[in-house]
Amino acid sequence: MKPVCILTDNTAQFLKPLIKGQDTIEIIPLIPTFNKIWDNCVDIDINQLPITAGDDLVPRMVPPTTDEFINIFYKLSKCYEKLIGIFLSSQLNSAFENAQKAVKLINGKIPIEIIDSQTTSIGLGHLVQFAASEAEKGTSAGVIERMIRIMVPHIYTVFCIPDLSYLCYAGYVDQAQAAISRMLGLYPIFALENGRLIPLEKVRNIRQASNYFLEFLEEFDNLNLISFLHPHPPVPQETLLLQEYIQTNHLKTHFTEQEINLSVATLLGPNSFGLFIIENHNQKFL
């Protein structure tokens, strides 16, 4: 039996394609559904997503049910001594809530801890890869859990979401807000705070959004990682602007870029982009 399994969902986007301990990561899929336009939603490519969602395309990310989580946990418990689930923000999807209910129903029969990452995409992937690398080193499950809980509040995120229709159908903004924003050609900017999308600003174009990202970045120092989540298709000129700024002002900070994946695009829309900032911190894990 292996000591620790790290569970997550498919909104996680990993900074490194191959890491030590990756075989301890188990990805539980949230299934994209879009009415009845496609027969097999699992095989949808991000290129098929329209810029704007509508009544003929209502995007949903469907998590496993509580019973499905119970079955997953029992199956994995045959191979691992301890399970640690790190899922996208409970404010963005009910995966964490369903997993938590499953743990309560199991009632201690399986050693498992569930963590609300309060993030998604690159932020979630960073936490999961860190946990997996620690598991590979032989760090105990209890210590890994404490490490992750300490790291969660040190991840900061801003998104620019040019079209609010996906968020509208997910229930985060109302239809009137989405329609007015689209009609005026606005680029709304949101922060992910305590796992919740908080509206910050509305700008007129991508350049202004990029400038807002840079101003946001200037508020931080002692950084561990800066990562740009670019849309599909990408906006290379804005990426270059960010790269130039970071190379000049954050020479010692690791910088990465990722294209938005299907799961995150189903939640936010394929044209959305974001900036993830991960701080160093001085707290001791042990």
Describe this structure in a few short sentences.
The chain has 286 residues and is of the alpha/beta class. It is 35% helix and 26% strand.
Describe this structure in words.
- It contains 9 helices and 12 strands.
- It is of the alpha/beta class.
- The two termini are 25 Å apart.
- Strand 8 and strand 9 (196-203) form a beta hairpin.
- The mean pLDDT is 89.
- 35% of the residues lie in helices and 26% in strands.
- It has helices at 66-77, 95-106, 121-137, 141-151, 165-169, 175-184, 206-217, 236-249, 262-268, and strands at 2-9, 25-28, 31-34, 59-62, 80-87, 112-116, 155-160, 187-193, 196-203, 223-230, 254-259, 273-279.
- Helix 1 (66-77) packs across helix 2 (95-106), helix 3 packs antiparallel against helix 4 and helix 7 (206-217) packs parallel to helix 8 (236-249).
Regions with pLDDT < 50 over 5+ consecutive residues?
none
Spatial order of the strands in the main sheet?
A: 9-8-7-12-10-11
The CATH architecture of the largest domain can be given as 3-Layer(aba) Sandwich
Distance between the terminal alpha carbons, to the nearest Å?
Answer: 25 Å
CATH class of the largest domain: Alpha Beta
Give the overall shape: globular
Give the helices and strands, then pairings.
Elements: E1 2-9, E2 25-28, E3 31-34, E4 59-62, H1 66-77, E5 80-87, H2 95-106, E6 112-116, H3 121-137, H4 141-151, E7 155-160, H5 165-169, H6 175-184, E8 187-193, E9 196-203, H7 206-217, E10 223-230, H8 236-249, E11 254-259, H9 262-268, E12 273-279
Parallel strand pairs: 1-2, 1-5, 5-6, 10-11
Antiparallel strand pairs: 3-4, 7-8, 7-12, 8-9, 10-12
Helix pairs in contact: 1-2, 3-4, 7-8
